[in-house]
Amino acid sequence: MTATMGYILLGWFGALLAGIPLFASMGLAAFAFVALAGIPAGIVPQKIAQAANSFPLLAAPLFILMGNIMNSAGVTDRIFAFATACVGWLRGGLCHANILASVIFAGMSGSAVADAGGVGTLEIKAMRDEGYDPETAAAITAASATIGPIIPPSLPMVVYGVSADVSIGGLFLAGVIPGLLMAGALMLMVSEVARRKDMPRHPFPGLREVWTAYKRAHWALMTPVILFGGMIGGWFTPTEAAGVATVYALVLGLFVYRDFRLSDLPDLIVDTVETTGVVLALVMTAAALAWCLSISRIPQTVGPMIVDWIGNPLIFLLAVNGLLLVVGCFMEALAAMLILIPILTPAAAQFGIDPIQFGLIFVLNLMIGTITPPVGVVLFVTARIANISFEAMSRAIIPRLLPLIGVLLAITLWPPLTTSLPKLLMGR
User: Fold this and answer.
1) 322 burial class (0-12, 13-18, 19+ CB within 10 angstroms)?
2) Which domain, by its residues, includes 344?
3) I need a labelling partner for 276 at 20 to 30 A (CA). Which of 62, 101, 213, 337 fits?
4) Tell me: the pLDDT tens digits for 237-253?
5) Helices (H), 110-237
6) For the segment 292-340, what is each residue's pLDDT rounded down to a tens digit?
7) What's the structural domain count of the chain?
8) Using an 8 Å Cβ cutoff, are 323 and 367 in contact?
9) How far is CA 294 from the centre of its chain?
10) Is 66 left (phi over 0), alpha (psi -120 to 50) or beta?
């Protein structure tokens, strides 16, 4: 069976290069394997249906809907105004505000694309109006958008947790420190560049103005508090937290800020269904293919080979970083996760690597890939918003990758950066 699956995987990669959609090629590969192995073909639809019947996966459409509602409910401008009042007085203040706003919005959207397309639109316009060149505005926006899927809630972490059978709550908590480190590293780089280029700064607006900006954004800022407090206090699971957050977003839009109309909801639901449909198609067919891989003993064969060949967990993690950074340059993040999780996680387990640490390393690598040419989806979004060429966007983003890769190395070399909070708050 192992040899049969090996040939099927070669054909599958060929199908990908030929441009066949990923979900279709994974489904066809699963059917090809069961046909050649003499297994009843009905097992593939059963595995696909089992993958969809997942309580943790229910969090995905709810978090997507919550982010869509937040984007439409007048939340983004309040967040950016509060961030500007807090750090806009620093040299290069709007760059700092851009990063801080992304940290705050990360606790609501869980998506790099939602961050770049939502609050990023306001950030880029404000920076260009103040005289920042469009490349700088777009590059800072794209780099800070990668914080979105690291600080919970996070759609990629939900998918990783379901696919790798890792606690989603543990992954959420593990992302807090790395997300804050990403923001701090980007702000340190901005401070140095702002000093060299003599970027503009505003006078400190005064505590009264900061307090006013906070009051306007208060209820939006409570979203991460409600999510964290509920999960840590044991009041609801991460999946239930997604439902609570969605209802909370509706209450904010309809009754608190009153910038959201019920007539907007059908379009947002359609957008959510479209996005969820893409995610579910990938997850379900990937589950069927993963079952075929398991039956053919590919992971059980490849895992020990990797362990014997590399022999050291740190070298293995560094090799995984290199592999995922390259893969992220050419493949969409969720697709790469679903392909590589069944192959790499068994090897990580044999090395004794904490599954939560490995999950954060996996997700952060692929989020960096979203801003890495030639296929970085966040680069395309921000380039379009800033009205600059993709080539100019690609050149501008390169220096901003360095702080993010520095954080990636930090969580690789020092596991407590990702494991301390889950152990402290959940005993994991």
Assistant:
1) exposed
2) 2-426
3) 101
4) 777 877 888 888 888 88
5) 112-117, 119-129, 134-145, 155-164, 168-174, 176-197, 207-232
6) 777 776 666 666 777 677 878 888 999 889 888 887 776 777 777 877 8
7) 1
8) no
9) 27
10) alpha
